[in-house]
Write a structure and sequence with these properties.
The protein has a ten-stranded mixed β-sheet, with helices on both faces. It contains six helices and ten strands. Helix 1 crosses helix 5. The chain has one domain: Alpha-Beta Complex (DHBP synthase), CATH 3.90.870. InterPro entries: DHBP_synth_RibB-like_a/b_dom, Sua5-like_dom, SUA5_domain.
Length: 206
């Protein structure tokens, strides 16, 4: 059964965040809130976590996983960014954007797009997600919690706990965080490509 943690949306309890971070380090797959919607998250190198996310969401090997980072310096360890792209992304973070970029050797091979060798990265503007990332000291391997055949992600932590009780290890709930996923911007092809329009304003990229 999944553990359920109810935390304050702006000042999450440090002990609870510490407990969830410890469970992630021990291989747990958790559900946590972001500035767009709930996400599935596990430790960066967890093969079991990756497999469980693929199974829950019914994903193929072309799916771009996302490395959810605490800050820009952490993000820069995992992707190659030229100066122009650096300035563009820096101005838009933290926020509800996922950026697809060429991955560095720090990214486990199983996370890469099989042909492009790219990975998604983002920096959330959400107090609970930021607290969890600060406690972990490394990115969370993540994917939007959108179940197969459903058009919108679930918004209630208690409902997520009920439906995914036997396939995730913990649910971190700080209230409704919306149903609109991140805006996805692909910088990997040399030119900016808006792959998905979502919660992040695309005006600055057009």
């Amino acid at each position: 059964m999944a553990k359920y943690f109810d935390v304050h949306p702006e000042n999450p309890q440090r002990r609870t965040i510490g407990n969830v971070a410890d469970s992630i380090r021990s291989g747990a797959l958790v559900v946590y809130p972001t500035d767009s919607c709930f996400a599935l998250g596990c430790q960066l190198g967890s093969r079991d976590g990756i497999g469980r996310i693929r199974s829950i969401r019914n994903l193929d090997d072309r799916h771009h996983f996302t490395l959810v980072c605490q800050n820009f310096s952490q993000l820069g360890q995992f992707v190659h960014i030229d100066n122009d792209v650096f300035r563009t992304i820096k101005a838009a973070t933290p926020g509800s954007y996922t950026f697809i970029l060429p991955a560095t050797k720090e990214v486990p091979r199983q996370l890469l797009h099989p042909k492009k060798k790219t990975v998604g990265v983002r920096i959330p503007d959400h107090a609970v997600a930021q607290a969890l990332l600060a406690e972990l000291g490394e990115p969370l391997l993540s994917s939007t919690l959108l179940l197969p055949g459903e058009e919108e992600p679930m918004t209630q932590g208690w409902e997520i706990k009920e439906r995914l009780d036997h396939v995730v290890d913990a649910v971190l709930d700080s209230g409704d965080c919306g149903t609109e996923p991140t805006t996805v911007i692909d910088f990997s092809g040399g030119e900016l490509d808006i792959v998905r329009r979502g919660a992040g304003d695309t005006t600055r990229f057009e």
